[in-house]
Design a protein that fits this description.
heterodimer; A: mainly beta; 4-stranded antiparallel β-sheet; about 0% helix; B: 5-stranded mixed β-sheet; 9 strands; about 50% strand; globular
Chain lengths: ~110, ~110
């Protein structure tokens, strides 16, 4: 158990809909990262938050948005869903100090039908 | 962020030592080298991290030459359960943790 909790584990929704994925980082970790992994594809970095502030942005679509709350949990919002958004979405967290290891959650499997 | 190059795939047999090399010619002075392991449908798992020379933990060793332009992850006596994708990451500070394509290791009986 990495200590990072992602909910829900599975999500099935229709095209055009909006969903929210939730991530609770390890206790004390200030950084949260979001990744998308499509079937047999690599991990695509989406966005990083540090202590509530956006730190870095990757290949995140305009239909997607995220935030990190004062209690450090994070949410990834996906809207106007398309079939191609079907993927595993991972959240990871790391401590505030430099060059620390990141801990990944078990992911949320999103299926858009 | 330094770009990394590693083999797309490797094959090995149970009990053998596996060495996966990663090239990172543009590594910066404050960059660390980190390796992760990922099983299908699971999140990546930290294996080992180093800055220079050799680092060893209970699961792997990491060899980094003096020029730090490459690194080698060494897995001693692999088993079937070591079949996974291995990622080499290079970065420093509050980095973006950018993952490349990784190396798919297949361990055969």
């Amino acid at each position: 158990d990495s200590g990072v909790t992602q909910t829900p584990k599975h999500l099935i929704t229709a095209t055009g809909q909006r969903v929210t994925l939730r991530c609770s980082p390890r206790s004390g970790d200030l950084s949260v990262y979001w990744y998308q992994q499509s079937l047999d594809q690599g991990l695509q970095f989406l966005i990083q938050y540090y202590n509530g502030e956006e730190r870095a942005k990757g290949n995140i679509l305009e239909r997607f948005s995220a935030q990190q709350f004062p209690d450090l949990h994070s949410e990834l919002n996906l809207s106007s869903l398309e079939l191609g958004d079907s993927a595993l979405y991972f959240c990871a967290s790391s401590a505030a100090t430099l060059n620390t290891e990141a801990f990944f959650g078990q992911g949320t499997r999103l299926t858009v039908v | 962020l330094a770009k990394t190059t590693q083999p797309i795939s490797m094959d090995s047999y149970e009990g053998q030592e596996v060495n996966i090399t990663c090239s990172h010619n543009n590594i910066a002075t404050n960059d660390y080298i980190t390796w992760y392991q990922q099983f299908p449908s699971q999140g990546p798992r930290f294996i080992i991290q180093g800055y220079k020379t050799k680092v060893t933990n209970e699961v792997a060793s990491l060899f980094i030459p003096a020029d730090r332009k490459s690194s080698t992850l060494s897995l001693p006596r692999v088993s079937l359960s070591d079949t996974a994708v291995y990622y080499c990451l290079v970065g420093g500070g509050y980095n973006k943790l950018i993952f490349g394509a990784g190396t798919r290791l297949a361990v055969h009986p």
